[in-house]
Amino acid sequence: KMRVLYARVYNSALSYIAGLAMIRRTAEADMVRLRKYEIPIKRVARNLCLDPALIAAIISQESRAGLLLDNGWDQERHKYGLMQLGRQQQQSFGVWDSEEHINQGSTNLVLAINEVRARHPTWSWDQQLR
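Predicted structure:
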């Protein structure tokens, strides 16, 4: 039984490590496209007191820095922009890859983090961010 448990833990750890490696490779591949947005990301991050790397990571993860988008839309045309804002947004600000749109997505992120922080004040920052 210990051998089975060990195998499960080992496979889970390998899966986690492989996932992190894949995310790292994806982010590195997106770096060239992300450079185009470096200045707007930094301005938005400074204004909202966010780490610019967090905004860049979300842009990379959500849209591959625009690579996966068709005129700003995902394949199903349900989400829009670099940070993939859903259609439920009352109003979309700016062109899909504009600073205004990055600001809107980042503002939504701050609001969501603050909601989690209010509901779980004893959690660490990492837990709240996840």
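Summary: The chain has one domain: 33-129.
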